[in-house]
Target: Calx-beta domain-containing protein
Amino acid sequence: MKKIYYLLLSLALTTFTFLSCENSLELEKFSYVTFESTAYNFGVDIGGTNTRGIKIYTADVTNSNRTFTVNVVSAGTTADPASYVIPPSVTVPAGSNEGTIEVTVSDINVSSSGETIELTFSDDAGLFSSQNMVLNVSQICSLNELKLEITFDTYPEETSWEMYDGAGALIASGDSYNGMTSFETNWCLPDGNYQFVIYDAYADGICCNYGNGSYKLSSGATTIFEGGSFGASQAVNFSLP
Model:
């Protein structure tokens, strides 16, 4: 009876060893890759372009380079396609388990509430990957942030504006607001003197004969000027900071 018991035990151990080796061989056929995090705050200078290195990691180290395909998930992306450059792939060098995706984002149609860019790895055969990464894109300013807000009257197509620096050079301008009820934009400007000029083509301002329109210039929590009742135009001279 003991001989049969030991024979069965030996057979079970042999089978377990064989299956364990087989599973190990199967696992070696697969790779695991992950982004450095599931969410990444990506600040972009107002009116500028920024590049960030996003890290990825693999579960193991091999003796050869490994390249992984990176895709943008359109369903989870609100950023303008013209505003970002995402490399189609990322390489983990031989002898390492770390790679870097160089992501470039420009301030193109980035709203005040921010935008998102969702990234994922391609579902290649034998590849396991972590959750997708969402880049939370927002505007940042290391100088003086200037904000313009306009609420139009009944005739928004009559409104236009211009912004000049201290030397009289045109920085920005806007018009053609037909059908719009409001507009806002931001600048990141150095210290200095500036002039903002708003125009009304009908020469009756944007308040208050045909709607309660208004405009506001602000820097951070400071209101530089706000108004709306003027004739053909109104000029506002101010300094930053």
Notes: The chain is about 10% helix and 50% strand. Confidence is low (pLDDT under 50) at residues 1-28. The first helix runs from residue 2 to 28.
